[in-house]
Amino acid sequence: MNQFTPSIIIDAGTLNCKAGLANYEGPKFIFPTNQNGTPNQKFPIQDGVIKLWDQYENLLHHIFYDKLTINSKEYACFITEVPNNTKINKELIIQMIFEKLESKLFYLQQQSPLTIISQGKQTGMVLDSGEGLTYIVPIFEGYQIPHAIKTINFAGRSCTNWFTKILNETGIRLEDQNIVQDIKQKLSYIALNYFKELQKQDKDISQPYQLPDGTILNVSNQRFRCPEILFQPHLLGYDIQGVHQQTYQQILYCDQEIRHLLFQNITLSGGNTMFQGFGERLKTEISLMTNEQVSINASHNRQYGVWIGGSILTSLDSFKEQWITQQEYNDVGPQNQIFNIQFYLLQFTQRNVNRHKSNIMPKDIMINDFIFIHKFLIHIYYLYIQEQVIVKNT
Question: Which of 315, 295, 305 is nearest to 272 (CA)?
């Protein structure tokens, strides 16, 4: 690979898309995935999965030529994907990048390992809650443990819909979801103790919000009742456990020898975890269920954690040889690139991420053959299980 080829990091979610040049602290552009944010235009990505491919191609063109104003043919393209992305979708993305955008180089990486990388770690439990879905994903030495991944169809959209309903209690009916979303992001918070918070008087918790027409809306206990459904879904009639219980349960599905590492490295990701008090409440709830030490990584920029992880990963010297080139694509097609993409991360993540985070230059490390083969076989096993899980769910 030409070491001077600049790379673009694209993390497109259900609601928003983050894009920008690698080696920066955050994405340059954050905008609605439907490009112009108009309600009548459908989103190409629904619940984390690409559904409208023509619009997704338009989105990529919009990123390169309208937002970044660069030629896609002169850049390497790094795109993130959700844990349960299908093999067919992976192949279609690779095909689009090389045949439609004609990018020089390409790499497709699952989001959860990037969240861990953004924290300078290689093992941890990721709780990623966005607009459409919530993912709970254990990561061990840079790769996912597929049989312990949990997908919950309960996330930011559920909170917004619930907030819209309970805001009617103020006497003002809000139809504009963008306004409701703005109120949610600015005023909502997670109560450390929900029932104690309910006992507080309105004057102690009420906050004003000025609507576009100048009307002042006083938001009281709706502020914490809105995101409480993440911990108590039964408030909406859902027969599922809260995020704290499901995180705990997924850790128990992992090997006993690594559980303590997962409890000590629970990492939050996604905009729906940005509520004030989310990390504290999660730690309190999980600590009541285990004797293990519980630690929550809740960085202030965690809504961009996936993008930041991609920026770090592509800046590592050892990553330069991992890009898929146009020539490799022409030689073997999109199908045979999937395994290569999934295996590459194992080879260098554990060697270089911590050194990169601590500003120490990576060094060549000789890996004991037995250890390497052992981890290779484990990784093959997990990839096989992941394919079975994907096939079963499709």
Answer: 305
